Each structure stands twice: as C-alpha cells, then as structure tokens.
Amino acid sequence: MGQVWKLGLYRILRPIFNFFDQNTFLRSFAKNYIYSKELYTDFFALSVFLALQNFAALGVALYWQVKYEYLPWWLIFAYYCQWVGLGGRGMGGAYTLSHKEGHHRGGGLYKNWIASTFGNVWENWMGYLYGIVPYNFSTSHVFLHHKLNGGKGDAMYQWDLDRSSWSDLMLFQYRVMVYMTGWSSMETFRTLADSNTVMAKNYQMLLKGMILYWVVCPSVSLSLLVGVAGCSIISSLKFMFYIWFEPMCGMAFFLALINFAFHAFIELDESGRHVACVNSTVIFDGDDDYWGEDDHMAHHYYTNVSHRDLPEHQQTQHQEWKKWTASCFKKLSIVELAIFILLKEWKRLATYHFVDFSGKLSVDEIAHLLEVRAKRKEMDYETYEFDYLPNLKANAVDLVKDGTCRNVGEALKHLAHTSTPLIEGQVTQKIYKKQN
Questions:
Q1: Rounded to whole angstroms, how far apart are CA atoms 300 and 123?
Q2: Which UniProt key words apply to this protein (predicted)?
C-alpha cells in the first residue's frame, strides 16, 4: 500500500485532498463548530475522509455478513487494504488522531458540545475499528509512556532489547500487544493506586475502557448479529475475529515496528541520565509526517510546541544535536527507518539519511555509532521482566523514604531516566568522543 502511494498515486490523490484540506469554508466551519482552537482545524479534512471511508467499508462488510453469513477472502483483503490506507494513511491517521486526542483528556480538542457528548471521538469511538481500547491514550500513553519518556516502567519499554534484531522485535510485539489490550498499563496503575491519586484515577478510567472494549461492545455486536440479523453464532464469531480482533493485532505490529525506530538508540550523559536527543529520533522532510509526529524528540520533551512552530523550535536545538550527535535523519519515513535498522543497513543510513550536525564524522564512524546505539541495552530482557518490574513500586517507595525523591511519581521518573553502565550488545565498542 505504501509503494503504490509513493510510486505515483500521491500525485493524483494529494491535490484532491489538499483542495478540501485548504478550503476556507471548511476550515471556518471546523473552527466555529468543531474544534476548540483554530490550530486543530488542521485535523478536520483527514478526520472526515477517514471516518467516511471506515463507515463505508464497515457497511459493506456488515451487509455481506447479514446477507450471506460469511465474509469472502477478497472482501476481507479489501477491508484490510482500506484499513491500512494508501501510504498507510488509514492506520497512521487513525492512530495519530487518537494520539492527539489522548493528549487532550476529556475531549479538549473539541467544542464543548462534542466534548461533553462524545469526549475523544477517535480515541474512544472510532478507535474501536483500529484495536484502540478507550482511554488507553489518555491514561497509559500520557501517564506512562510520556511521563517516563520510554524509560523503565513504561508499558512499551524497549531498551532491554536489541532494536536491530527480528527476534527481539517479536518480544516487543508481545509487549505492545499486551499494552494494546490495556492489561499491562492497568496492572501498573492498580499497583500504584494506593500511593498516587492520579494513578488511581487512571486505573478506573482504563478499567472502564477495557470493559467497554472487551465485554460490552462484543456482547452487543454478537447479540445484534445473532438475535436481530439472524446470523449463526459461528459466522458471527468469525466476523468479530476479522473485523474486531485482527485489526488490534495489525495495529500492535504497526506500533511495535514504529516504536522500535522512535526510540531505537540510547545514550547516557556523565551522570547516567538519558540523553533526550539521542533516545528519541527526529526525521526531516519525511514523506509520511503527520503534524510533526516525525519529530519525536519535540513530541516527548517539548510537548507545548505545536506542529506549526516546529521549524522555529528545531533551530534552537542545533547546538544540542551537535554536542551529542543526535538521532537525526532525513528523507525517509519512520517505517522505513525501522526496517533499515532491522536489516542492519547502517552504511545506507549513514550515507543517505543521517544528519550529522557536527560535520566531523565519517560515514563509517556514523554507521558504527548507529549500530552501537541500536544494539545497546540498559539490562537484559529477563532481568527487566522478572526482577526490575516486580520490584518497581518497592524501589520507588525506597527513594521517597531516603529523601531522594519527594513522592512516588517523581521516583518513577528518576528510575526511568537514570541507568547503570549500559550493555553494549554484540558490537565492539570504539572510543568515541562527543562533539563539542
């Protein structure tokens, strides 16, 4: 789907989309009746097109199911193709819209009439079609992934894995799948609920979302298919598998892949703290950027910078990027970056895509640096899963008791952002001086 788009179809379809996206009447309507700020009108055209596309596809699938009591393979294939979208713009758009809403809890993107009635439209309603458990972004993504910046304790932590390993990707795929169900985050919130009121509230919200996703909606859907439409139980269960559960698996694999690239590299400063501009990537001139999502550094560490203000913000970061030889790339997508890392195409990345702000490193030095940082770990998988995580709360409480941190929330961030000497993986480490 991505190659069909990139090899030329975008030349036909993008101007059509731009016509609606830049239409002053539609923008004015969205500003006056839909969104709480003019900035958010940038999301309107994609939201409308994607919603119409999904309703049409789901309608066809439901019609076929009710009339014939089965879904033929060609229809399932067509449904998944529209679900992914040309250039990944279906799946990527739905994820991004849900993601944006999750950062504005309770429908903050929208006018009050939408916020008070529907809340987050994509995260909590349309997201069902993409395997998104309601409130997962508003809780887990914001209060674990962002609070800990991908560090230890995050439901999608990955620095105990080799990000250039296909087998380690499968371990991460499992971790992300459990995150997608809501279970891993809910367990973390439950464990911390008695020591943190925010975590207790997140636990209740996510539990509600899980009940809606895993109990209420499947029960209602099956009741309608069997009791109202007269479909058999077996055919209805198959329909739910293909339309309800399989998309969650697809979205989990997509998230595992792109997050391997978003946080592919790791470096520490002299005090053992994570280096932000290495541990999160940024892509310039990417083909598939959604409102600044390609700048994952700013997304994590400068969350108040809007996508319209990113170019100006990035100018202020050049010295920091030069000092640490930051994880900066150009002219590729986040999916392509992930695939090149997994294929160990270090030379290709160094030659054509890496942006060296110091201007002092050779292609071979850059390639070696990327390989070292991608294979480097904070600890091994078994230690993290079976030692660190079970003792996370106890370690946080100890930091509060000895006065290192003021509360458990602060202790969790301290633990997540600080590390002992890193494990270098299978790469022979060369002496490397940071560029000043």
A1: 19
A2: Membrane, Transmembrane, Transmembrane helix
pLDDT digits (tens, 9 = 90+) for 110-165: 999 999 999 999 999 999 999 999 999 999 999 999 999 999 999 999 999 999 99
Angle CA(260)–CA(265)–CA(266) in degrees, nearest 5?
125
Q: 292: left (phi > 0), else alpha (psi -120 to 50), else beta? A: left
Candidates 384, 406, 385, 386; CA nearest to 396 is 406
Amino acid at 25: F
Q: Is residue 95 part of a domain?
A: yes
345 and 197 in a single domain? The answer is no
Mean pLDDT value across the chain: 94
Q: Which domain holds residue 181?
A: 2-256
Mean local confidence (pLDDT), 196-223 = 96
Which tops the pLDDT comparison, 111 or 4? 111
Q: Which two three-digit tokens encode residue 89?
A: 């713009």
Residues 155 and 299 in one domain: no
Mean pLDDT of 172-194: 96
User: How far is 14 from 26, CA to CA, in rounded Å?
Assistant: 17
Q: Which of 436, 432, 326, 393 is nearest to 152 (CA)?
A: 393
Same domain (yes/no): 247, 282: no
d(CA 90, CA 83): 6
- The neighbour count for residue 308, using CB atoms within 10 Å, is 11
Residue 147 lies in a domain: yes
Cβ atoms of 173 and 296 closer than 8 Å: no
The two tokens of residue 221 are: 């859907």
CA 254 from centre of chain: 9
